[in-house]
Amino acid sequence: MKREMNYEMNAFYIAYRNLKKNVSFYLLYFVSAAFVIAVFFSFTSFSKSRIILDKISSDGRVETMCSTISVFLMAFVIFYMAYSNRFFLRRRTKELGIYALLGYRKADILKLLISENIYICCLAFLFGILMGALAYRGIVCLINGLLRLGIRQSELSFLDPSAVAQTAVFVAAVLVILVISNGRFLWRSSLMDLVRFEKSAEKKMKFHKLPAAAGFLMILSGYGLSLDILRGSRSVWIRAGFYQTGLLTLFLVTAGTVLFIAFFLPYVMERSKRHKKSFYTDMKIVTTPGFIYRIRSNSRTLIMLTLLSAAVLTVSSVMALTLYYPIAAVSRVAPSEIEFRIGDGMREEDIIDLAERYAPDAADTEITITDLYRVTSDSDHLPVEYSLGSSMNGAQGEEILREAGFECISYSQYRRLLEEQGKNKAADRYAPLSGNECILLKYQPDEQEEPEAGRQYVLDFANGSAEVTVKELSLDNVISFANSVGTLVVSDELYSAISRGQTPDVRVASLNGSALKDNEALYQALSDYLDGSPYLQGHSHRINELIYMNSSTFLLIGFLVILFFIAAGSILYFNNRSAAEDSKADYEILEKIGYRRSKIRKIIRRQIRAFFAIPFLLGLADCIFASMVYKAGLMQNLLGSSWSQYVPVGIAVLLTALIYFVYYILTVKSCCATVWPLDRTMNCSAIGQNDELSTRI
Amino acid sequence: MRTILKVNEVTKIYTKGQKPSLHKVSFEAEAGEFIGIMGASGSGKTTLLNVLSTIDRPTEGNVLIDDVNLEKLSDSEAADFRRDHLGFIFQEYFLLDSLTVRENISVPLTLQKIPPKKIEYMVRSLAERFGIASQLDKYPGELSGGQRQRVSAARAVIKKPGILFADEPTGALDSASATELLKALYEANRDLRTMILMVTHDPYAASYANRILIFRDGRIVEELRRNRDERQKFYERIIEKVAEMDTGRN
Ligand SMILES: Nc1ncnc2c1ncn2[C@@H]1O[C@H](COP(=O)(O)OP(=O)(O)O)[C@@H](O)[C@H]1O
Ligand SMILES: [Mg+2]
Question: What is the spatial distance between Cα A88 and Cα A18, in angstroms, rounded to a whole number?
Answer without folding.
Answer: 12
